[in-house]
Amino acid sequence: MKRFYILILFAFFVVNLFSQEDMCSLMRERNEYYFEFELNDNYDIKEISAIVSIDKINDDRVVAYANAEQYERIISLGVKTSLLTPPSMLVEYDMYDNKCREEYSWDQYPTYEAYESMMYDFAERFPEKCSISELGVLESGRKILVARINDGVIENKPKFLYVSTIHGDETTGFMLLLRLIDYLLTNEELPEVRKVMDNLDIFICPNVNPDGTYYSGNHTVYGSRRYNADGVDLNRNYPDYKNGSHPDGNEYAPETEMLMQFAEEHQFTMSATYHGGAELINYPWDNDYKRHVDDEWWQYVSREYADLAQEVNNNYMTDMNDGITNGADWYVINGSRQDYMNYYQQCREVTIECSLQKCPPAYEMPDFWSYNINSIFAYMNQCINGIHGKVIDSYTKNAVEATIKILDHDEDYSVVKTQLPYGDFHRPIKAGEYIVMIESKGYTTVYDTVSVDDGERIDLNVEMLTEESYTMKDTTIVTCNAYFYDSGGDDDNYSDNELSVITFRPSAKGAMIQIEFLEFSTEENNDILKVYDGKSVIDSECVATLSGSSLPEIITATNLEGTLTLSFSSDIATNDSGWKAIVRCTDPVDVDEYHCNDMVSIYPNPTKDVIVVESDTGDIISNWILYNTQGQIVMRSYKEDVLSNIEVTNLKKGLYFLSIIIEDKQIVEKVVIE
Question: Is the pTM of this model over 0.85?
């Protein structure tokens, strides 16, 4: 807290550099007023904060920003203000023009042209690890640029985002993130870099508000301002769950729309936004004294960031509660980016205030890097920890769009969803034992109990079953994923004197019905369930006669149609709880026999790059499946045609088995890939 007083006193001193009249003229021209006022009982701070952008509150002193319209409203309320020198006009700044790059020591601010050139240069120099996206071009011609960095693999990785300088005159984070991009790309041999590159899909946007940073021109950050070109505070411009879609009364700024669209498209697991003007970690919520459900986790990761910074400099990152604070406990604001990301995007985002002076001299930037680098990586590593997993359909093995909820813990804003197309999910969380609920429309909800420690990663691989269910009766069912019960269903016993037959046919061509019993109990030797490998009890082989309380083994069809038929009979006396089973489809993996047929031609064989499967009769090839020698599916297609070209250039050399369905006949051939 002492450092706030020092900053305020400094502000009082520098205000003498300009008369209040000159200051007023300057700020009218900039359309941005920077001022302070003394709190008293005549002022309603909530009313004031709804009009202007409060920057800090220190005891009875408030420092704030306003555009011309907002400032006039404050004056009309009778608030007595003192204008302060804008933070970006306290010193001159050394600027870098992107020349002599090898001599650049990150102790100069880049001109706008240098910044843009540096960003594109990262992608050109490291195309296998970095790409640059333009979220949009502002009317000024300046761009919102994002670097995407990974090891070339994005599957099953959480997406992590760092952004900075939503307030254009808060430039320390701008330099930190620009340097972070360079550090990640040029130090792949370092273990901390390798870890995040291997485990995260990283996005970095060094400057969200270039119009504010380069307000005085592309050549300098001197005179940079908080607001964007239209006089909008971008950190009050987001939807707010308590105060509506436009809490600041403005339409969404172009920068806000770009960042919201970006968040919608990428489903970030964690993020952080860098600010200046204090030295602390500000965790959710900004607009509400009610705590986030992950408040303990937020305190844990915030404390870690501050502590690691203090290990480098024990006078750094010590504001408020020794470097951390809940947002509303500091002061309440509405429409913040942090609250938007946490509430609407289910992303864990925190605000990192990284320098007391909003726009420090450029020569101080290497020091801020040394203070923050360990904390920067520690925060990214928290995205790797917690509960992770993948959710797939138990039959198709395709990704399932599912919601993951921690029972007796989560609220709607804190649940996470699987990322498509891979079906992976990522849930950072504080150490503890949790019941994880995975639910998806059309599937049976899955529950799993998980114990996780701080700094630990737990992976769950979840196969979801359809909610289809059938009871024993005279019928034919076409399915690939269902529960199967006796006539009493899930809760009741079957009846006396039953006699019924049910047939299960696969809904996927070329598949085989498989039945796995989860529970089984019938009156032994009197109430009997028989299983036939085929579509009837007359022409099919009986492969299982089940009675008593022993759990049967899994039964899989082997006939051409892939069907199983079951008959059940009970006597007139005792009945029991019956059974609960899963009916699923499985692909034929028994390749001991090869059915050669002149219906199709398969060539060339051996092959190096492509296998051609051609119908010799003109009949349609319904599907084909390529297996390895372990019976695992490596490729498949349900496209119906008389000709298929199978690209195999990416497969390992060796023996494979190609299963083809044509005119309801299965043909299996050996294929050798050289």
Answer: no
